[in-house]
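During the no-cost extension, the postdoctoral fellow (Dr. R.K.) reprocessed legacy sequence entries with the updated structure-token encoder. One reprocessed record is reproduced below for audit purposes.
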Amino acid sequence: MTKITCLGAGSHSFGLSTLITLLQSEVLREAELALVDTNQESLDLISSLANWLNSEWGSGKLITSHSSHKNALNESDFVISAIEVQPRERLWQQDFELGSRYGVRQPYAENGGPGGFAHAARNVNTILDITHEMEVRCPSAWFLNFSNPMHRICYLINEYSSIKSVGLCHQLSIGYAMVAKALAADYGIEGADTFLSSHADPNYAEGQRRMAMAGMKHFKITAVGLNHFTWMLEVRDRQTGEDLYPLFRKRWNELPANFEPLTQEVFGAFDLFPIPGDEHLCEYLPWMSCNRTKPWEKYDLSLYDWEYFEGNRADLWKQVSEDILQKQNIARYVQTHSEGAIEIIEAMVTGKETIWEAVNRPNLGTISGLPNNAVVEFPALVKQNAITPVSQFELPKGVLALLQREVTTAQLGIDAVVHGDRQLAIQSLLLDPVIDDLDLAEKVLDEILESNQNYLPQFF
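Re-encoded structure tokens follow.
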């Protein structure tokens, strides 16, 4: 019997969709789903939902609930993690504001910049505790990570534990949506005018979804790089294999100038299309924090709406609670998008080879010019107990230089937190494109450590 342990099972972003796809899997009938969340209220709710759906659908799963990962990990085959230090939105806002008194304006502060350093740092001790427990309780298990900052967290797991891991992210779908919008007229795709932006705004969500689905139907993208910093090497017709890059380039240049303006300029400068959309792309670029030019205004780089998403999550769980209590609206849970965990697990359980277009794994020569231990994103062949790149890849020198800087910045940041090494932390911040002053790095680090000292005792 396959055992799958879900850490952070009450996660708004990944927990619900992952749970539903696991329950719907016929391949995993009779599997145990061990649900773990340190928030008892969230755990009770997601467990009630799992048991209700499991019964109504006849899914045949064994559902267990745990407030600690330690007992849940025993003899697990797969560990899915979507953990996040709470309250997520308040801490994210804190990360964005931490340097404001010194005039530091971060583009987004989730995965790059000083905010990315702080975001990753808060999770380091918990992730290490989990992986070290896995080394004892389920040493052969695969760790499937959804937590951000993706390539920093995955580097932590691969560098400081013996556990096999893979990071999964759905951001490639935005690349598909942008290709579909550009080629809509050529392929008779309707609704292109409803896709207005890649920004994390509920007003844009339906347009993004519609174009992403159309894009995945008609096209095949090959993209490599770092998570949220990937680059499209190829785009082909999914049926015929025709190279569509020349046509895409022509049609993209015909789009309105206010659609993904940062992506448009970066594509023009580096002659390779960046996949993630403006809000994620901006976190890793050296020209996005200048108070003189204010690029966040030029490119309309809106911030994450922390209050909206905090309220939205509360509303979602209230709705779920009412549905369970009234035993109603079960149809709302039938259709959900896959985050990739189910495809990876089913391929490994059955041995049936599957291509997954975006996995995060140690480089090991997959992208020439990056360190072997850099965690990079690439398309891979998944089969029994193995994930291997479909090819080796070359990137243009300019793009590679941007990636090299981010890899070093991220690795120094994780190394610093693991060892409680202030000097390495300073080096990480000094390499970060947001920081433009030696003394500023010291001040920002002090702000990070002081506001997160409960999570970072190794520095005190």
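The radius of gyration is 22 Å. The chain is about 45% helix and 15% strand. The remaining legacy entries will be reprocessed before the final report is submitted.
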